[in-house]
Amino acid sequence: MSISVSHISKSYKDTNALKDISFEVNSGELFGLIGPDGAGKTTLFRILTTLLFPDEGHSEVGGSDVVIDYKKIRNSVGYMPGKFSLYQDLTVEENLTFFATIFGTTIQENYHLIKDIYVQIEPFKNRRAGKLSGGMKQKLALCCALIHKPKVLFLDEPTTGVDPVSRKEFWDMLKRLQQTGITILVSTPYMDEAALCDRIAFIQDGKILEVDSPKRIIKHFSKKLYNISAHNMYELINTLKSFEHTYSVYPFGEYVHYTDNRVDFDIDQLQAYLVSKGLKHISISNTQPTIEDTFMELAK
């Protein structure tokens, strides 16, 4: 077991950031912590990287206690916080050299770990970090987190604010890093990224809702799901919310995802109701649930 979290709780004055959190991450696993802003992801990461003490509970990283063995853990993990935290006045190469020196290593010694990433930013090695694009900052931060060959890598919302192409490249890099045996715990608010993890934990309001593989979690969605569209999406959503048999309704791209609280759902009855409310160009069809649908169901 690479990471063990047992009944962890943490509060800030009157705010309960984490409420009796428990889960485990296997060695070499790419594990996702999935939830919206304010769910408690960053607080948990700070506890696991020994930057915060929990109020209650016990956690271990690589077999070491996060409170007692904090020095050992800091030497064996890599941490990439959500906010870019490298030295913006230093160049790319200077930042990387600085972090390598802190951990008593060199860029050359562990270059094989960062090579695929570093070659993309090497043409800008003399540019100050503060002048890099979002995607380049992300790659530099990952290089600095890897340069000391960590056993466990913590990535707190690493793709927030990054363009879609850079997001895809980043996850391709994570898959390659996983093949080297590094355990990766990554948090994200993006449900599409959850599907790229081996297992995920849904977190909402400081509580773990469910832990499982993405495929098995989707199978837990028991209701039939429908795509509905009309000429006016805003009116469609409000009209569906007022329908007496509605169980859930929320926008999903160009459609509204709808579930009914009846077992014998009648599409014709719903269509007639929407027409009676003045909606036009109505389309209703079956669709398959996604991780986001499952999260929304669990969050209810």
Label the structural class. alpha/beta
Specify the number of helices: 11
Range of helix content: 25-40%
Shape from CA axes? elongated
Q: Provide the gyration radius in Å.
A: 23 Å
- Give the termini separation: 32 Å
Looking at CATH, the homologous superfamily of the largest domain is P-loop containing nucleotide triphosphate hydrolases
CATH topology of the largest domain: Rossmann fold
- State the assembly state of the protein chains: single chain
Summed over residues and divided by their number, the pLDDT gives a mean of 92
Q: In CATH terms, what is the architecture of the largest domain?
A: 3-Layer(aba) Sandwich
**What is the H/E string?**
EEEHEEHEHHHEHEHEEHEHEEHEH
Strand tally, please? Answer: 14
Widest sheet: strand ordering? 6-7-8-3-9-10
What fraction strand? 25-35%
Give the class-level CATH name of the largest domain. Alpha Beta
- Count the domains: 2
Largest sheet descriptor: 6 strands, mixed
**Low-confidence sequence ranges:** none
